[in-house]
Amino acid sequence: MNQIQTSSKQKVPNADIRRTIVEIVHNSGAAHIGSALSCIEILNAVFKNVDLQKIKSQTADRDRVILSKGHATAALYTVMYHHGLLNRDEIYSYSKNDSLLAGHSSHHVPFVEHSTGALGHGLPVSLGIAIGLKAKELPARVFVIVGDGELHEGSNWETFMLAGHLKIANLCVLIDRNNLQQVGKVEVTCSIEPLKTKLESFNFNVFESDGHNEKEIAEKITNSKNSSQPVAIICQTTKGKGISFMENNNLWHYRAPQGEEYKKALKELTS
Question: Average pLDDT, stretch 215-235?
Answer without folding.
Answer: 97
